[in-house]
Amino acid sequence: MQLRGPGRHTPGWESKMLFTKRLREGIRRGRIRCSVRIWTRPHVKVGGRYRMDEGHIVVDSLTPMADTDVTDDLARESGFENADDLLRIARHGSGDKMYLIRFHYLPPGGWDMASVRDRSAARLAARARSSRARSRRDSGSPRDS
């Protein structure tokens, strides 16, 4: 999971998540929903959307971890045979901090339903507050504390 592009602040630049080809189909089908990365600092943020092939990876969580936390079960969940296989691939760079990234794949043209639900809930809450304020104004009752 690397970011590629000319620079983070270049207008119109969209970052990508890179995975080995053998993992991509599992990610697209939702069988692989996490990745262990060793970086010098986090390269993704929770809620961020990153291109992968035609769709996007949406980061659900980013958790610092120790290499002793990498188990064979976590490796299989990440698309690898075992912990040694995962760590061999993860240790390819100069990073010294390990992170567990949980994510979901958003297909091309797909809506991130969690985002849509969050925005809808926020709009409904704002309408309710506005309605209560109008009601208090119209009735002349004091504001609730």
Rg from alpha-carbon coordinates: 21 Å
Are there runs of 5+ residues with pLDDT below 50, and where?
A: 1-13
**Which range best describes the helical content: under 10%, 10-25%, 25-40%, 40-55%, 55-70% or over 70%?**
25-40%
Strand percentage? 15-25%
Strand order of the largest sheet: 1-4-3-2
**Number of helical elements:** 4
Q: Which architecture of the largest domain would the CATH scheme give at its second level?
A: Roll
| N-to-C series of helices and strands | HEEEHHEH
Give the biggest sheet.
4 strands, antiparallel
Overall pLDDT level: 82
How many independent structural domains? 2
Q: How many DSSP E strands?
A: 4
Cα distance spanning the termini: 48 Å
Q: Could you describe the 3D structure shown?
A:
With 145 residues, the chain is α+β, with helices and mostly antiparallel strands. It folds into 2 domains: 1-108, Archaeosine Trna-guanine Transglycosylase, Chain: A, domain 4 (Roll); 111-139. Helices cover 34% and strands 21% of the residues. It contains 4 helices and 4 strands. It has helices at residues 21-28, 72-77, 83-90, 113-139, and strands at 34-39, 49-52, 55-65, 97-106. It has a 4-stranded antiparallel sheet with strand order 1-4-3-2. A hairpin with a 2-residue loop joins strand 2 and strand 3 (55-65). The longest helix has 27 residues, at 113-139. The termini are far apart. Residues 1-13 have low confidence and may be disordered.
